Amino acid sequence: MDLQIALLLGQDGIVNGAIYALLALALVLVFAVTRIIFIPQGEFVAFGALTLASFQVGRVPGTLWLLVGLGVLVAVVEIGIATRNGTLRRLVSALTWNVAYPAVAAIIILLGEPGTWPLVVQVAAALALVVPLGPMVYRLVYQPLQSASVLVLLIVSVAVHLALVGLGLLFFGAEGSRTTPFSDARLDVGGVVVTGQALWVVGASAVLIVVLYVFFERSLWGKALRATAINRTGARLMGISTTQAGKLSFALAAAIGAASGILIAPITTVYYDTGFMIGLKGFVGAIVGGLASYPVAAGGAVLVGLLESYSSFWASAFKEVIVFTVIIPVLVWRSLTTRHVEEEE
Amino acid sequence: MEQPVILDVEDLCVGYGRVEALHRVSLNVRAGEIVTVIGPNGAGKTTLLSAIMGLLPRSSGNVRFLHSAAREIEVERMVAMGMTLVPEKRELFGEMSVEDNLLLGAFMRRRLGHRDERATMDEVFGTFPRLKERRDQLAGTLSGGERQMLAIGRALMAKPKLLMLDEPSLGLAPLIVREIFRVIGRLRQTGVATLLVEQNAKAALQLADRGYVLETGEIALAGSSGELRDNPRVVESYLGLGGKHQQ
Amino acid sequence: MSARSRVIVLVIALALGPLILPEFHITLLNYIGLYALVTLGLVLLTGVGGLTSFGQAAFVGVGAYTTAYLTTAEGLPGFVAWVGVSPWLTLPAAVLLTVVVAAMLGLITLRLSGHYLPLGTIAWGMSLYFLFGNLSFLGGHTGLTGIPSLNLFGMDLKDGRHFYYLIWVLVLGALWLSQNLLDSREGRAIRALKGGTVMAEAMGVDTARSKMVVFLVAAGYAALSGWLYAHLQRFVNPTPFGLHIGIEYLFMAVVGGAGNVWGALVGAGLITVLKQWLQDLLPRIFGASGNFEIIFFGLLMIFVLHRARDGLWPVVRRLFPAQAAAAGVVAAAPLPIREKPVAGTVLLDVRDAVKKFGGLTANNQMSLSVKAGEILALIGPNGAGKSTLFNLVTGVEPLTSGEVHFLGGRVDGKASREIARLGMSRTFQHVRLLATMSVLENVAIGAHLRGRQGVFAAAFHLERAEEERLLAEAARQVELVGLTEHLMDPVGSLALGQQRTVEIARALAADPSLLLLDEPAAGLRYLEKAALADLLRKLRDNGLGILLVEHDMDFVMGLADSVVVMEFGEKIAEGLPEEVQGNPDVIEAYLGGVD
Q1: Cβ–Cβ contact A37 with C under 8 A
Q2: Residues of chain B that touch chain C, judged by Cβ-Cβ distance less than 8 Å
Q3: Residue B243 Rama label (left phi>0; alpha psi -120 to 50; beta)
């Protein structure tokens, strides 16, 4: 392998690693706030990419119907609870978000011609359809299980993953899709061609990471999410609702997932089940970060990306296996150096 | 003149599975009053506070706070209405700074549109100067006494009308207990009502205006602190015959 | 109906099955049995031991491929070829090879704590799956065919109806062995893993070994299932050994009820039948285009876990409550007791112990000694470093410098369980008990080091004599602390003060020479404290040394023979209680003046 190939592979690795880093951050966030290992993260990647792809070929994406359907289900559940408790006036916001919003989205997409919209509007529309699915899934599936064990939440996550993959196949079919690149630019850097899309991915990931950092360090809701992650009971006593924190973290995770999908869709062909592997690698990065530290998780994810890229050159069939096997020494090292302090107090 | 009742608990029952932890508990707290609940371990004191706060579901009975009685109590709603609980375990945000812990104490007030958290924080720092010295330190690195101060300070950031304290003296050296109790006593002058659950019955009855004795999930006795201090049953069970080394 | 008669009904029903059920149902039951074996391993590993594994399918694969290869390959060298002659010879080979592979993987991945472990299992699960598909001598993705059928007592088990009996005899046998194992000294050690390693190690449990035991048992069951699968199916390929199937086994365990061995049967049965049913039903409703199964399956699983998050076994048991077996403790010969040092012998000698956490000095030049027949109280304001000193003495944390001597030998640097073995036993400031286990079983964990019977004896219940003695000893300690009326109650149902007392009984069950108590009186009321003080005096008079961290001054002053006062990690005073009380430094730091 000469230097040029090495650099090219490095570029690939960093691009993929940036995406894994975003997903790792989302996984860490969701786990820290809700104790849920969010296996369906990958499906949001696929949904984001394939919703955009549907727009571009002039099809109505199935995620629209999922949004409408889940919204109706949430509304039914909320109306049931409100009737039982006599708190009907608090339904307004629930109905706005779960019935009115999907209805408006449906009207705009069915009457407009998404295929003719500019790319940036298509991207915004894809995000607008996919992101609310996160809080809805949280409301329907996880909120009733708030006090369940990590193992039960994990198994439920696998079940959600299975259901969403099935829906993905139903909505988008078995064929993969690619979307129009954000930029056709090609830069020659020291003999290596860097594509505009690669810069987009890395740049957008970096911006998102900085935005998340500022959100958690500076904003009241960001601090509230951290507080929930550190001490759920303490946070509730401050008036921070576990449910709201959960929904917010799922919205963030869905947004990060969908954005990642939209970013990579011009580079890789995305299939309905592509998300799982991508999510799993984000998971590897997150685990390397101990499901606790955001910078380490991001670093772990970039490492995974590089590892994958270089092993695909030497042994492409072994690519996945190398990524997962080489991670074991990293894990052993981490578990030996991180002193496992038992949860005292 | 008698102050109005701000917390009125009526026939509260709470059960864990088949075991009933609280049985028809009734009590009330008036504005500006310090009311204590004493009783042996396992009597259900912590359960009582958790159920009033909405952390635990109740099986039957009513909890009226400031004349509002929802069928389903939610913690967030109670906080919004001016009730705060300092739990036995403190429940601080260990990996956040003292200042951020205090800021989050004002989370609900911020959401309700108040922007006075800096002024409130200065008041808290006035009450607990130790916290000001350590404002940038992580809460997890504080000593036991400082943690309790932070827990109380954080609760005060919400400008509560009713402050509920669960065993504030547990695990603290006597010197610190005395300081904490002094602060609680001073709060009365600012009009805050306090519901104090204590196993240190002696100190609690010295401080409080009235008290209830909770035994095996039921109110066994109620009365003014003076009456309870003189009650032979209380003396024998909770105040002990020794106690010469305590304050 | 008692639990025993219910098992008999189940066995009879299973025995009659092939006589009345159609072929298709037999096949389904065969697969349920195979899955139940693997799931049973996961119940032990994940549900009981708290170690989550996604990789069990890969172990099934190792077992299946071992027998497939040995019975079909030609031209094997003589020293292995003889194994391939009969599947009955490849059975031990398959299990052994799987267990060896598991032991190697276990050595790496079981060190991983918390959420690292599941990822570790994903990692090797994927790698093994990939190896099956890419090693040419294993037939690549097409796999191996022509695997011989089993032959039992001259009967060819080609027919699923015959194979059925073999599978279910093995499943029931595995259930019996697993239940036995859990109900034993080794089983308690495995169950203690969920309570945190610090507690288990302090009771003398080698937690690394317990983890490995349960991991290897689970791998062994998986290998057995794989061996059966290979000879039932008569061919193998990599598909059933992939990550998705590994996840499915975990599904079965959790949905069935991972806390109980019967949950394995319920989970395997339900999921197998459900998938079959969905595959039959849904295409009829939605027309030919499939893939609705996976959506419905996912949704149904969410629904089930919403309704029964501990899995279905507890629901089944509630629907058909069994009469509780008359649990009780049989009178048994007392366990041998340790030779105790005579009163006045120095038991514990801490010399200039220093402990630094980063820049913070938690203990600085701390020295103290405890003699047999003495109660030494360690007091001081919160944060003075008392609990840290406890952790240094008991081997939970390493010292930065200084020495700890116990019974004349140096123990700093030794593991907790080795120190426990020498006769030091402790309680914890924050109660560390297993809430769902009975008081008796919790206390029996304390007696762990006083038994020696191992896993095999436990699985076949050959250790009943010793077990009875251990339980009798535990019951005796429970009586000593006055909790006999709660002997069989789950610890979680006791008040916190009583739970602290259970901790003392557990520590005493180890028959220690030195007892370390971390705030035993916190949360006790007056009369309970008096009873505790009486008990501690009695123990002291019997020659036990006691080191006591406590806040309650009344309690300490009336009880202790001598007192050490700490402040800011250092010793500021020591002596008789009266002396310490009069010491101006102590009054300033701790007592805060006399009112």
Answers
A1: yes
A2: 19, 40-42, 141, 143-145, 170-176, 178, 199, 237-240, 242-247
A3: left
Q: Spell out the long-range contacts of C81-86 with Cβ–Cβ below 8 A and sequence spacing 24 or more.
A: C86/C151
Task: With CA atoms as reference, report the closest residue to C296 among C313, C281, C315.
Answer: C281
* C301/A159 Cβ within 8 A: yes
ipTM of the complex: 0.91
In a domain, C465, yes or no: yes
Residue of C nearest to B216 (CA): C495
The residue segments making up the domain with residue C580 are 343-423+512-595
Q: Last residue of some domain: C510, C544, C568?
A: C510
Walk along chain A (345 residues) and give the pLDDT tens digit of each residue.
Answer: 688 888 888 888 899 999 998 998 898 889 889 989 888 999 999 999 999 999 999 899 999 999 999 999 999 999 998 888 777 777 888 899 999 999 999 999 999 888 889 999 999 999 999 999 999 999 999 999 988 888 889 889 989 999 999 999 989 988 888 888 888 888 887 777 888 888 999 999 999 989 988 999 899 999 999 999 999 999 999 999 999 999 999 999 999 999 999 999 998 899 998 888 888 888 777 776 665 667 777 888 888 888 888 888 887 767 777 777 777 777 777 667 665 444 332
Task: Select the residue from C378, C379, C382, C498 to test the B interface by mutation, using most B Cβ atoms within 10 A.
Answer: C382
Q: Tell the CATH superfamily of the B1-82+162-241 domain.
A: P-loop containing nucleotide triphosphate hydrolases (3.40.50.300)
Closest residue of C to B201, CA-based?
C525
* Cβ–Cβ below 8 Å for B93 and A226: yes
Tens digit of each residue's pLDDT (9 = 90 or more) over A73-98: 999 999 998 888 777 777 888 899 99
A89 touches chain B (CB under 8 A): no
Give the angle C484-C487-C493 at the CA atoms, nearest 5°: 115
CB pairs under 8 A between A and C: 122
Q: Are C320 and C357 in contact (CB under 8 A)?
A: no
Structure tokens that stand for C270 in this block: 């339900």
Give the DSSP letter of residue A286: H
Q: Cα(C442)–Cα(C492) distance, rounded to whole angstroms?
A: 11
C-alpha triplet C122, C125, C126: angle, nearest 5°: 85
**Ranges of each domain in chain B:** 1-82+162-241, 88-159
Q: Examine the domain organization and report whether C90 and C188 are in the same domain.
A: yes
**CA–CA gap between residue A146 and residue A148 (Å, rounded):** 6
Strands C545-549 and C514-518, sheet pairing: parallel
CB contact under 8 A, B41 and C381: no
Total of domains in chain C? 3
Look at residue C497 and tell me whether its pLDDT is greater than 90: no
C330 inside domain: no
B91/A230 touch (CB, cutoff 8 Å), yes or no = no
Phi, psi (rounded to 5 degrees) for A57: -100, 10
What is the residue extent of each domain of chain A?
3-337
Q: Is B110 on the interface with A (CB under 8 A)?
A: yes
Å between C452 CA and nearest CA of chain A: 28
**How near does any CA of chain C get to the CA of A328, in Å?**
6
Q: What value, to the nearest 5°, has the Cα angle with vertex C494 and ends C492 and C499? A: 85
